[in-house]
Structure formats: C-alpha cells, structure tokens
C-alpha cells in the first residue's frame, strides 16, 4: 500500500487532450478500486466504509446517499451532467463488487438504487438478523489454542453490527459475556476479574485478556524443556537400572552393558562401513567431546502430535543436525563415548555416532534428495532435528512465516519447505520414503532380493550354492520380517474338532441360508437348519423373513424334546441379529439353554452347520437340474435333500446314519424315488366325469412326514397334493417343464399345515403379519389338494382380531379350476409383461392382451404415436450407467378414449415413469398437479352464460413432455422401445427428424445403453405436473393472461376489451370468450409453444357433458350413468322418484355381503355427486360410511340410487343469465345420523340460475341443539362464500361477488349477528365463530328464509317426492 500511495502522490499534473484526461481518469479509478476489498457475502460492513471514503474522495458520495437528486426533466443540461456523474458513481460501486455478487444489482439503473439494493441484501436490520447476531454473541466460545485476538475481534464485530441496528447491550452484561467466552484454562483470570468491586468495561477487559494471553505464551516458552525431542531423564534412569539389574556383563567391543561382543551391532556396523571409512578402529570423537543443543520454546501438548522417529523439525536452537534412528543414515562412524548436553544442566544424552543422512524433500522443482552431513546419532531422541545454524553456514537462507518455513539457496530458489503444526516446523517430505534399510546379514539381503522367499527355500538355495551368501546369520530374522508378516498374514489354523458329543441335544448347531432370489411356492425366502451334534440329525424350517428364526427354534425345541425325552442344553450359532435379540436371549435364559457364538467373520467355528448348508445346497442343485423343475421349487428340493441326508451314512458318526443314531434302527429306503420323476396319481374326486381319465399326470417332489404317501405337483391344476395311489412311470426326466417363465405355471400358494412334509414346516403365527391366502378346498381320503388361488380385484378388507398391532388384510380371492392357457404371444414377453399385468386394473388394458388381440394394429399405432411425440420433444438421451441405485422404471399405459355416447373414439398409449421409485432430494423436490376444482369448472360455465361467452376446448398433446427437468433423473429403457423405434425407422426411411433420431437411439441401445437421461417431464414423475404448469404459466402470462390467487388453474385477462377466461385441468384447456376470433388468436399463440389439438366447442370434458345453446349451458352425465347402469347390471331396472327412502335405517345385525362390488359402486356414485348431481350427495355420503363392511341393506340402498339415476339420467344443471349475484343456502339436519346421533351439514351456492358449489357432510361433533347444528353448518358455508367472493373479486366481478346466505333457523341467525353467550352456546368451538367476523366485515349478508323455501334441505336428509323435486328445481336441475 505504501508503494501505491507514493506512486500516486508523485503523479505530475498533466495537461493534455480529452483522450489523455480520460485515460488518466481510468487509471486513477483502477488505482483507487484496487485498494478496496471486493464485496462478498460477509464483508459489507468494512466494504461500505471503504467505498464511502472512495466516493467522498471522488466527490460522488452525494449521488449515492441521495442528497443530490436528479434535476427536473425540463433542465436538460443539468440532468445530463447529473446522469454522467451518477454513472461514474455506479461504475465505482460495480467495480468494487465480486463478479459472483453482480447479479444482485442487475437492473439497478442509478447508483442510489445499487446502494439501497446492497443494503437490503447484506445489511438487513430485520428481527431475523438481530436474532442471528445475538445468538452468535451468546454462543461464541474460544477453543484451546485458538488466536485470542481473532476471537475478540469477532466478538466486537458482532457488537458493532448490533449497535448499528440500534440494539444496545448493557455494559456489565457485555463484559460478563466476553469473560465467559474464554476457555476453562482462564478460570483463575475470570475469578480475579469477578472479585473486583466493579467490573471493567468491555474495552478495558479486552486489553486485559490480550495481555493475559501474551503472558501465558511467554511463560509457556520459558517453562518447556528446551530439547523437545529428548526423552524424560527419569524414564531413562529407571530403564538403565532395570537393565543393569538384569544383565551385569559388559560388551568389550562397545563398552555398553546388556549384550556380548558377538552380538554387538557396533561390530557389524563397523565391518559394513570399513571400506568407506579410513578410521574404523578409533572413534572420531574424544571421550570428553560434548555438543550443546538448544531448542526453541514448545508447548507440551504438541509433543503428542509429532509424527514418530522419522519426522524432521527445523530448529533454530540446535548447533548440529540430530537423528534418533540409525537406519536413516547413509553412512555413519560409531562414537560410543560422546555426550550431548541439553539446555538443562542435569540433562544429557549419549551420541553414538556421526554420519550423513539423505532425506527426500519437496522443493521448488518438486521432489529432490537433500544430504545432511555431520548428523549426530542420538538414539534417545523422540524426533529428528535440523539445525538452522548448520544450514545457514552452507550459504542457505532460512525464512520463517506464520504458517511455515522455507530454505532457499543463493539464487533464491526454494530447496526445502516446512509446515507449521502447533509451534513446530515439520519438514515436508515426499511420498517416497527416505528410509534407509537397516544393515542386515547376507541371508536377509537375499531374502529381500528374492521377493521375501520363505526361510526353508532360501536356506536350500544357499546350501545348493545358487545364492552366494557367505554370512547366513540367524534364521529367526527371516521369521520376524515385518514385511512378510504384513504381506503374508493369514488366518491361524483351526484345531480339529473332538467329534460328536455323547449325549443327544447337548449341543444344537444352527445357521440361516438365504435369501434366495426366487420365492418358493410357499413364498419362503430363507431356511434355517438345526443339527444335533450327537446324532447329526438335521431339521429345516422354511422362513419368509429372518426374524422368524426364533419361532422356528421354539418349534424345533418342542418337537425334539418331546420325541427324545431330553432337554436342549446349548445352542451354537453365528452373530446374526436373528439369533442375538432380546426375545431370543430372554427365552434361552428362562429355558436354561446356554449359548455358544462364533467369532465374527469366522464361519469355521460354526463348521457343523456350515458344512450341512453346503451339503444340502449341493444336493438341491443336483435335484433341480435332474428334474428340470423351476428354481421356485428349491424349497421342495431342500426338504427332500434333508430327508435323504438324515438317512445317509456320515463319517463323523463312524459310518452310521443320523436316523440310526437317533432311532437305534437302520433306515428303510425302499420307498425312495428320483426327485422330479413322472408319476400318475389316481383321481379320487367324487364329482369327476365317468368317462374322464382315472389319473392325472404329476411330478414327484418329496416325502411328507405325517402320511405314508408322496408329495406330487400337478402341473395341469397348479397344485401340490399328498397321494398314496401313485404309479411311477419313469425315474428319468420325462416331464419337460420350461424354466424361463414359471409365472405361467404356478401362482403363489401356501400348503396347509396338515400337509407339510418332513422338514417342510412354514414358521407361521397365530395372527400372521403376512397376508397369506389359504385354500378352502376340502380333502378327500389320503389326497390333500390345494387349488390355484389368485387375488381378485378390489381393496383388501381389514380384519381386526382384537390383538395389538396392525389389522390383517383379507383380499378377495378367485379360485381357478381350469388351467390358464398360454397364448402364443406369451413366449416373446419378458418379465416386464407380467409386471404390467399387475396394473391392469389401472391401465384397463394390458400390453400383452393389446398386442395379441384383434385390435393390435390400432394399439401398435398408438404406441408409435406416443414414441414419436417423445422423439419430437427431445425427451431423453440414451446413456449407459453402472449404478442402478436411483434409476426409475417405466411402463406403457393403454386406455380407450370414450366419447359422450359411451363409444370408443380412439386408442391411446402413454409411457409413464414409475415415480414411486423416486427419492426426495435426489431426483425430485417439489410436486404439484395443475388440476382445477370442479367448483371452478361450474363457475366458468355460470360466468359464460352471464356474459354470453363461448367455451372452446383444446387438448395439449403430450402436455407433460413440455416441462423441462432441473434434476438428474434416470429411467430404465422402456420395454418394446427398440421394436417401436425400428418400425418408426422403416416408416420414415431414416429421413427427417423422427427417423434420424430413432436411428440414433437404436445405435445407442446397441452400444449398451441401458437408461434414459430425462430432459423433459415424463408422465408419472412426481415433479412432472409442476414443471408442465410452470411452463404453461409463463407462456400464458406472456400472452396477457394472469392466474388468480385463489385458483391457480384459472387464468383471466382482457383482449380487445373482452373478458377471456382460461381453465387448466392437466392437459385440457377450456377458453371462454365472447369473440371466437379472440379464441383463435390465443390458439395461434399457443401453437408457437405447444402442439395443440383443437376440439372445438366444449361438449365433453372429464366425463361431463356440456351443451351450449341459445345463451344457456347445461351440464349433465347421462352417458356416464348409462355406462354405470350397464356395468352393474341395472340397465333394465325399474326407476324410482327419490334416491333414498324417507327413514333410511340399517339393521346392525344384517349379514355382511362380501361378494358385492359395493366399494366400486360407491366410488362411481361419489364422482357423480361432486360433479353434476347434487341431488344424490346426501345419500351417497351416508352410504360411503360403510365401504369397509357393507351389509345387504347397504347394497340394496346403493342399488336404489342406481334406480333413481336410471329415471333421471337426462337431468342436469342448467345455467342461464340472471341479474342475481351469488346466493347461498345453509341448512342442517340435527341428529340425522341414527348411529352416532351427529348432525348433517348441507349448503349450496347458486349463480346464473343453477348451483355451482355444494356440500353434504356429517358434522365432526355432536350438536346439543338444532341452533348449534345450524350454526356449525353456517360456519362451513361462510368459508365457501369467502372463497367464491374472493375469486369473483379477483376477476373483477364485484357485483356478482355481493353474496347473501339464507338460513331457516332464527337462533343461528341471531348467534351469528350478535356475540351472545349463554349456557346453551358457550361450549361451541371457537372456529365456528368465524362467521361473525365475516358478517361484521361485510363479506356477505345473512338473511332468513322459511323451511319450505330452503332448497339446501335436500343436502341434509332424504325427502319426500314433492319436496325433493321442489329442491331440485331450486338447484337448477332440469331435463
């Protein structure tokens, strides 16, 4: 800074042309701004002071602080001068800001705007900023070893910022906070300050703390031992006494105690260096020669952090280089009588030698080798020291800084670098170690040269004369080679076991095998083995999850103890959590069973169980390969393998079998047959045809324990039976079964417990958490059959058994007596086709059925159209990824698009991503779906009739594909994509945009592309709707349409002074305008951004039929009703006049009807009740309470609604122009529910002669009076009125927003108008008093109407025919 100031002060006065002056100004400005630290996120306080000084110096500050305002528009000359100066001030501000922060002031035109914007961002004075600074001030603590000055500066910086926000902190409080921010080592200092009569001010205390810190540093430097690397003298003396007491003989070679001359290392070292040294007999140092070494002050706590005996430290107090490791010397002369004097007069160390050390260090040229001559060998050093004095004597320069030090030569080139750690300067060494291998014997050298060959082979090479090693030395040095131990360490051998114990059940070995990739036919994924150590008898139990091991052990214990009459004494297993848990430990303790565990990752200690696992799995693989059965039969094969193995001789038992050792008799194996053999099973069903075959073909799969029979799988019936009347056709593989598509051959089933074969037990619970499906097929004779059972459509029923935990789910089942036939197209489908079939209920048509059915050409065209849209929108790139962790799946969804008459209009295919696989924060964050409320759709129709608007409907083709993704989303390549691309390639002849992109995708797939990197928002992604809405919203705003705050999917605007309304429902757009040409102009603008399908005048949307005629608009669902009647078989039913009986009471003792599709019917009726049929809302609301357990009377009541709809199918809401504003009716039926005596709320709101919003709902609390019930209903209607009023006001229709609500209860009206509280109303929840605020604020008016004129009465209870039709007329429902 001084050089810059001097150069600036010495600038001569220049008189030159304007160009020279401009150059001078630029130079001075650059000079000034170079002094200022650029603005960042954390330095606004200091930056603002510097910038203010700079601007004052340049006479520009008055433009920034606002004191010099812009002249009037009329004074052109003054305004030009002002703008020029203001631009200079703005330029100074911009040049003093970091480039990363310039985006904050983008758009600011004047210097004043720039300054105010920066202040609002970086100098916020709001409550949040104050709270942050106060929290920082109170929680700031000084850690041991940290800089005290930095801590105090940070503390007072926060104080200054708070004072700038007018936050004053009491002086004593500030001193106390500063005092207690110090660490515990300042406790004495803190006590001394607190013992004063008055606390010093914060400024005085700051000085005291700094002085105390400096004094502590100086004191620490004086008290620390000068020689940091010296070991404690007391430890040395005690060690020497111990050695002397143990060994009294002295070496006559080196004169030291503790060893003899033949083992003296000094002798070997002198021999090794004899050729290099001219004086190997006498020492280079006299006996009284001493060296003094002084170390700089070091804190004791850093002595623990030094990096061992090979670390080197730069030391300014040493007079010589010191090293404590003799193996680091390149050459060394021994000197046994030298002494090294330390700073303490009583401390000294022995110098054993002197030599050269080569150290690999880091310099300016990178790695280099530095030689340190005349280095003293001091074995007792704790670290190595480099003398600064010796370095400078060689002409080098040593420079110490705060963070490190460096040594440079005469040319200024850095040759050595040191890093500061604590208060010590460690030399920076290269990764290649400068370690010199210890001097060793010839045998050890050849051991290194031969790649650490073992001692026996190396000795043989020496004896054979191949290795010329004259000094063989001690073989122990090869055994103790640390490199060999590190590189060749292996597990220690295990001792051979003692053999089986003498008592059955004394020790039980156990282990778990699994999980298997394929579930067994009983949905098991694991099996556990229990082996008796004495008899080697093995039992297996199939498990669906590992946690079932505990239950399996209890079953095993109960069975074996009852069969043998003995008790289990010990259980041996590994450390799996299935064995080590609280329940298992508690049970073993209570049963008195000991536990033996293997060492972690040491399966050899559980060898009996591990060997049994291998034996069973080997036999299982052989059985499956022999039989040709699918892998899902592994459970049958394992059970058979265990059954056979228990009857085979064992070497551990001396040739006996486990069966013989357990039962004291030889096993009978005459009934054994080959697993997978083809068999014929006698058909004993009583209802079989007289001319039908007498037997069925089957496959032998095992032996049951309970019966003398065989386990046979019947492929035709997809079931396993236990049969005695079996004829084995052949024991060779005659029955061929495909193994690549087992899903076509069997379905998940569970064998009943009474039919499980030996070792085929399923570990089950009394109330299992597994949703199991059991067969209800009765057994006949010795045959126990299991039918094929499939899960039927529909939601499961919750079975509450009265126990703790979640209720069980009971699914509807479908039993197939005939085997399913495999179509030709199934052979080409992969597993994904089966996955798609799971979603048939949602997709309506499965991909397999569509491509194999008579309409396959139409569906193929639909698939091609979908992929073509994806290609046009550049939706993805085909990439290859290795990690499939965050990849999402996808599938094609096929649906039929129906018209208003219920006929199919077209086939539609949609590629949908499986967004359920996405993870929050990884491949998605926020979600939103642009779905307009049904109330908004009806409001659009009402406003269209009021202003005589025409409603036009558009469909955005592949709307979601227009949204751009900001996250990285990878999706699996869709199935059948390659075939579709190939057809598109042929169709477009590889030309055009679609053809070329299709060819490119095929090439990427051929190269191994397995994933799609999505660039567009594909359907099914969680963020797809949000991205599409954001794209559409931005385009509509640019076109002049503004979204409403209360309904984000409703846009409004004025074009050519005509009101335009646009409603968004996902990809459907409804545009209403009085001029059709305006609609077409909007269409042309939308076509610039999206592909739009012009449907024309709106007549069918979301299942709603819209008819626009003669200034009226009707809304009905006649086609939907006819389809519903046809679906539930009610097309020819007798119509009724009302949807419900007057007294709709349900018998609680009525039988439950599980077979009827009650839930599906109620779901369809609910959609109608909220769309266009408010007349059935109350009845459907009552029936919807019983979807979980419907009875026969509920089903009959639901069918009555269908009968009512059959007679009123053509009824709908008719909107016509009226001059009335928004009108509402609120009513309640007090105690209308006979089950819990709660009341029903009902309200309706009318506009343009028909209802646009309604509700029928049971109240959440029991009302104690009719007034309370009416008041609660009024509060609900008030919320809807406020919403509709706000929506109309936002569009600019204040006249229509003048709402009125009618009630038929005087008490509720008075309670809403006046704050009356008494015993009858004081308990009413405070949220219902919201209606009072609305009335007092004038949001709507409240009026009374007689009960006969209350049209909302139909929303609260069933009515007679006359009253019902009267209410419908008031609601605007007509034919």
From TrEMBL:
Molecular function terms from GO: aspartic-type endopeptidase activity; ATP binding; DNA-directed DNA polymerase activity; endonuclease activity; nucleic acid binding; RNA-directed DNA polymerase activity; zinc ion binding
InterPro entries: DNA/RNA_pol_sf, GAG-pre-integrase_dom, Integrase_cat-core, PolX-like_BBD, Retrotran_Ty1/copia-like, RNaseH-like_sf, RNaseH_sf, RVT_2
Alphabetic keyword roster: Aspartyl protease, ATP-binding, DNA integration, DNA recombination, DNA-directed DNA polymerase, Endonuclease, Hydrolase, Magnesium, Metal-binding, Multifunctional enzyme, Nuclease, Nucleotide-binding, Nucleotidyltransferase, Protease, RNA-directed DNA polymerase, Transferase, Viral release from host cell, Virion maturation, Zinc, Zinc-finger
GO CC, alphabetical: DNA polymerase complex
One GO BP: proteolysis
Domain Integrase catalytic residue range list: 496-666
Annotated CCHC-type domain residues: 250-264
Function recorded in the entry: The aspartyl protease (PR) mediates the proteolytic cleavages of the Gag and Gag-Pol polyproteins after assembly of the VLP.
PANTHER family, per the entry: TRANSPOSASE, PUTATIVE-RELATED (PTHR42648), TRANSPOSON TY4-P GAG-POL POLYPROTEIN (PTHR42648:SF11)
Descriptive protein name: (Mediterranean fruit fly) hypothetical protein
Organism of origin: Ceratitis capitata (Mediterranean fruit fly)
